[in-house]
Specification:
The chain has 8 helices and 7 strands; from the N terminus they run E-H-E-H-E-H-E-H-E-H-E-H-H-H-E. It is α/β, with parallel strands linked by helices. It has one domain: NAD(P)-binding Rossmann-like Domain (Rossmann fold, 3-Layer(aba) Sandwich), CATH 3.40.50. A 7-stranded parallel β-sheet has the order 3-2-1-4-5-6-7, sandwiched between helices. Strand 4, helix 4 and strand 5 form a beta-alpha-beta unit. Helix 1 packs across helix 8, helix 3 packs parallel to helix 4 and helix 4 runs parallel beside helix 5. Bound molecules: nicotinamide-adenine-dinucleotide. Nicotinamide-adenine-dinucleotide binds next to helix 1, helix 4 and helix 6.
């Protein structure tokens, strides 16, 4: 990744933060394209303190002007973009009977339109630079199998996987590869807050671990390793693919103690 310019959306927390940290450690110039100043400046400062190259650019991936502004700021600063990681995403799990159009718009605007907008403007910059590039979309295991009350999120992530294939075909002629990484349970602040709200968090976590073939959930670092591989030249003939990373959770047909 030496001197490659890597844009990570939603880099302020969780999986995006893990990806930004790994990319910086491995020599990339990392753009932290995230929504909130507090998170963005904090991570920029922490990475710079370790001697890495990092720059926070305030970005709302659901807003076209904000995305255009982010891309033009990055080009002014570095002259090119080599890798885009479309990681920013939100989750609203709600019954379809209670979910509102406003809920639908929030999820789709961030998780699906955000991938469209960032890819559109970054791909144009990659084409202009004539040196190809790699786009990695952070999708979810909900793109394959899902649960009740997740319609909006499952639709967005299923859309991300479908769009990944189409973008790979459209952009292959410019040497731009496009792949999706689909995490399952990942140990982020978001997961820890969700767990803390349960009546018996320890018991719930034990049950969750038990659903996984490997007996554990992923860390942001685990996801970052796969994203790194798909961003680097070692994956130079991989495009249009989606990769599940979930400790074997989704491999199982069903879960029952009775049979
Ligand atoms: N954590 C999991 O278990 C898990 C599992 C599967 C998939 N994912 C996916 O991984 C990605 C990251 O999830 P996470 O759990 O790390 O989330 P998180 O909530 O911990 O972090 C998301 C980051 O994105 C930023 N963000 C939110 N909206 C944004 C916007 N409109 N523009 C720019 N930045 C924005 C937030 O400020 C935050 O820094 C998401 O796409 C999510 O769907 C997460």
């Amino acid at each position: 990744m030496n001197n490659k310019v890597v844009v990570v959306t939603g880099a302020g927390n969780g999986i995006g933060k893990g990806i930004a940290e790994l990319m910086a450690e491995r020599g990339a110039k990392v753009i932290l394209a995230t929504k909130y100043d507090e998170e963005g400046y904090l991570l920029e400062k922490a990475l710079k303190a370790q001697g890495y190259w990092a720059c926070y650019v305030q970005t709302d991936v659901s807003n076209e002007e904000s995305v255009k502004n982010m891309v033009s700021q990055v080009l002014k600063l570095t002259g090119k973009i080599d890798v885009l990681v479309n990681n920013a995403g939100i989750t609203i799990f709600k019954s379809i009977l209670d979910a509102t159009v406003s809920d639908w718009n929030k999820v789709i605007d961030t998780d699906l339109k955000g991938v469209f907008l960032c890819s559109k403007y970054v791909a144009a910059a990659m084409i202009e630079n004539k040196d190809g590039g790699s786009i990695v979309n952070i999708s979810s295991n909900h793109a394959y199998r899902t649960l009740p009350d997740t319609e909006m999120y499952a639709a967005a992530k299923g859309g991300v996987n479908a769009m990944t294939r189409s973008m790979a075909i459209s952009l292959g002629q410019f040497g731009i590869r496009v792949n999706a990484v689909c995490p399952g349970f990942t140990d982020t602040n978001h997961y820890q807050h969700w767990l803390a709200e349960k009546e018996n968090p320890e018991q719930v976590e034990k049950e969750i671990f038990g659903l996984h073939a490997l007996g554990k959930i992923s860390t942001p670092g685990d996801i970052a390793e796969l994203v790194f591989f798909l961003s680097a030249d070692s994956s130079k003939n991989i495009t249009g693919s989606d990769f599940l990373i979930d400790g074997g959770l989704t491999a199982k047909l069903y879960h029952s103690e009775k049979f």
